[in-house]
Amino acid sequence: MGDKLLEIKNLITSFRIGDHYYAAVDNVSLTVNKNEVLGIVGESGSGKSALAFSVMGLHTKAKIEGSILFNGKDIVSLPKSELNGLRGDDMSMIFQDPLTALNPLMEIGAQISETLILHRPQMSLKERKDHVIELLNMVGIPRPEYVYEQFPHELSGGMRQRVIIAIAIANRPELLIADEPTTALDVTIQAQILDLVRKLKSEMGSGVILITHDLGVVAEMADRVAVMYAGQVVEIADVQTLFNNPKHPYTRSLLNSVPAEGQDKLHVIQGIVPALQNLPREGCRFAERIPWIESNTHEKDPVLHEISPGHFVRCTCYKHFYFPEEPKEAKVYGNTRG
Amino acid sequence: MAILEVEDLKIYFPIKAGIFNRTVDHIKAVDGVSFAIEEGKTYGLVGESGSGKTTTGRGIIGLEHITAGSVKFNGKDITNKKKKTKAISRDIQMIFQDPYSSLNPRKRVRDIIAEPLRNYENLTKQEEKKRVQELLELVGLSPESILKYPHEFSGGQRQRIGIARAIALKPKLIIADEPVSALDVSVQAQVLNFMQDIQKELGLTYLFISHDLGIVKHMCDDIAIMYKGRYVEQGTKEEIFNHPQHIYTKRLVSAIPDIDPSNREKLFQFRQEVQEEYDESYNEYFDSEGLAYSLKPISETHLVALPEKG
Ligand SMILES: Nc1ncnc2c1ncn2[C@@H]1O[C@H](COP(=O)(O)OP(=O)(O)OP(=O)(O)O)[C@@H](O)[C@H]1O
Ligand SMILES: Nc1ncnc2c1ncn2[C@@H]1O[C@H](COP(=O)(O)OP(=O)(O)OP(=O)(O)O)[C@@H](O)[C@H]1O
Ligand SMILES: [Mg+2]
Ligand SMILES: [Mg+2]
C-alpha cells in the first residue's frame, strides 16, 4: 500500500429531520493513498455527496462524528481559518451541481481568479489572467478570452461543469474530490477531463476520490472502488476484482442494470431507496431489496469481511445470492412490482 | 405522421460589448437544424457539449427566441408563438438538464409537482395529493417525500421530481434533456423502463438529449449528432453506431467508456488511432470556421455532413 493521504475513520454524518438526527453516512471508514484514484459508486441517495462534503468541511447543519485525517492531521475539528487555508489549495472539490456552485452575478474569469487571489496572492494581475485563460484552455473551453467575461447562465451545462473543474484544479491540489465530474460532458470532453485528472495524479502524486454513476468511467479511471448503499460501504476491492468478481448483491445488481446489446427491458432493483428517516438501521440494509433471498442468510449485525486481500464485502448474504427469474408480467414501475 | 417538424432552425445569441452594450456579433447556438420526429418514436440528440442541444429543446418549447426557421407541432406552426394554445403547452413538456436550478427551492415537492395539475385540471385537495403521491411512486420516490423541500434530496432524487412533474399532465411530446444522467444505473434502468412503458401506454414521443451513448443506443430509434450548432450526421441507431461516417461521430463513438477495466490499454490504442484520423482529416471535414458542411444523403435515412467536393 502506498502513502496514506486521507484516512476516514468511523465517519458518521447526520442530518436533522424533525427532532432527530439521521445518519446519511453511517460509520464509514476509507483510505485514499497518494497517487491513487478511489472510485465511489452507489445508489442515488446513498450518502456519497454527504461523505464528500464532510471531508471538505462544507456541511453547515449536519452533525459529524468520527475522524478524517488529511496527511495525518485530523481535520474534523480544525478551526475554520485553518480549514479555509486547506480548501481550494491542498484539497479541492468538483461539485456535482455546477450552477449552485457558481456565483450567478460574477463573471467566469473573476470566479476562477478568486481562488488564485486567496491562495496565490503574490501573482500579478497579468499572471493571474494568463493562468485563468490557460486553465480554461486545459478544460477544453473554446474561446476562453470571451468566456472569461461571460456569466454562468450564458454557458451550456457542460461548459459550467468545466469552469468548476478549472477552479478545482487551479492550485493543483493534493486531494481532489470529484463528485460526478463528467456527467454533464460529452464523451470526447469527458476523455479530456479524465486525462487531466490522470495527469494531476501522475505528475503531482495527488489522490483522487471519484464519485460517479458512470461505471465505464470508474472502470477506466479507478485503482480501487468502494460501493455504497444506504450510508454504508458494502464492498471495496481493486478495480479488476470489483468488475470481474463482484460479490455483494447490491454491486452485482448494479452491474446487472447496465444496458446490454439488444436488451428489451433493463434490469432494475426491486423496491425504492428508503428515505433517510426510514432506513433500516439493523441487520442487512439491502435485505428488503432482495426478498427472495432467505432471511437467515443475512448477518444480524453485518460487518465488512475481508474475503481476499483488499476485497471487503458486508454481510454474509452474498454467499447465497442469485438473480430471480425475471417474472414475465411484472411491471417494473419503481416499487409497484407485481 | 410526424408530430414534430423542425425546419432550418436558427437560434442566435447576441454578443454585446462596449459601454453602450451594442451587439457586436452573434453566437450561433443553433445554426440551421432540420428534423422530424414520428409520433411514438424516440429521437436522440447527442453531440459536443455546448453544441446547441439544450437550446434546440428550449427553442421548440418556446423558452428561447427563434431567430429563423420554423417549428411545427402536429402540423401547426408554433414558432415564437408567445400565446400558445393551452393544449399545446400542455402537450409538450420538458425535463430539464439541471435538476438543481429547475426546482424552486422554496416550494415543497407537493407544490412543485402539483403546479402543472393546478394550471390545467380542477382537482380537489384530496385528489391532487393522491395524484402527486402516485407520480412520486412511479418515479421511485417514497410518498412521504411530498412535504420535503428540494435541498433535502440527493441529486438523483431531485431529477426524479422533475420527471414526475413533466409527466403529470400526460403530454404527447417530452423533451428530455439528460433525464437520467444524475441517477445511478439501477435507478436509471427504472426510469428508462418507465419512460418506455408510458411511451407505449400513452403513445408518447421523445426528443431525448443525452451524452450517454449506451443509453441513447438503448432508447432511440433515430439519432442526430450535433457539433457547433449544426448536424454532422443523422441516421438510424444502427447506421450511427455501426456505420458512422463523419469523423466527429467516429471520435464520439470511440470515446465511449468501457465497463471492463482490462480493456484500458486496447481502448487507449484505438482512441489514439481515431484521434489521428480526426486530426488528419479535420480540415477536410470542417470549413475555415471549423463548422460542419451541409448534410448529404447517403441512404434514405442516413445523412452526413460530407466535405464539399471541388
Ligand atoms: N440537507 C439535508 N437535509 C436532510 N437530508 C439530506 C440533506 N442532504 C442530503 N440528505 C439526504 O441524505 C441522503 C444522502 O444524500 P447524498 O446527497 O449524500 O446522496 P448521494 O449518494 O450523493 O446521491 P446522488 O447519487 O443522487 O447524488 C439522502 O437520503 C438525502 O435525501
Ligand atoms: N442565454 C445565453 N446567452 C448567450 N449564450 C448562450 C445562452 N444560452 C446558451 N448560450 C450558448 O449557446 C451554445 C449552446 O448552448 P447549449 O446549452 O444549447 O449547449 P448543449 O448542447 O446543451 O451543451 P451541454 O451538452 O453542455 O448541455 C453555448 O455556446 C452557450 O454558451
Ligand atoms: Mg450526490
Ligand atoms: Mg445542454
UniProtKB/TrEMBL annotation, chain A:
**Keyword list, A-Z:** ATP-binding, Cell membrane, Membrane, Nucleotide-binding, Transport
Q: Domain of life here? A: Bacteria
Q: What SUPFAM superfamilies does this protein map onto?
A: P-loop containing nucleoside triphosphate hydrolases (SSF52540)
Which cellular component, as a GO term, is one annotated location? Answer: plasma membrane
Keyword check for Nucleotide-binding, yes or no.
yes
Using the record for this protein, list the coiled-coil segments as residue ranges, or answer none. Answer: none
In the bilayer, the protein is annotated as: Peripheral membrane protein
Q: Does the keyword rRNA processing apply?
A: no
Predominant cellular place of this UniProt entry's protein: membrane
Residue ranges occupied by any ABC transporter domain in the UniProt entry: 6-255
This chain's protein is named ABC transporter ATP-binding protein
Q: Origin organism of this chain?
A: Oceanobacillus halophilus
TrEMBL record, chain B:
Q: Which domain of life is it from?
A: Bacteria
PROSITE patterns referenced in this protein's UniProt entry, alphabetically: ABC_TRANSPORTER_1, ABC_TRANSPORTER_2
Task: Report the SMART domains cross-referenced here.
Answer: AAA
A molecular-function term among this protein's GO annotations? ATP binding
Which residues are listed as membrane-spanning? none
Single biological process term from Gene Ontology? peptide transport
Q: Which UniProt keywords apply?
A: ATP-binding, Nucleotide-binding, Transport
Span of domain ABC transporter = 4-253
Q: What is this protein called?
A: ABC transporter ATP-binding protein
Which family is this sequence assigned to?
A: Belongs to the ABC transporter superfamily.
Report the PANTHER family cross-referenced here.
ABC TRANSPORTER, ATP-BINDING PROTEIN (PTHR43776:SF8), TRANSPORT ATP-BINDING PROTEIN (PTHR43776)
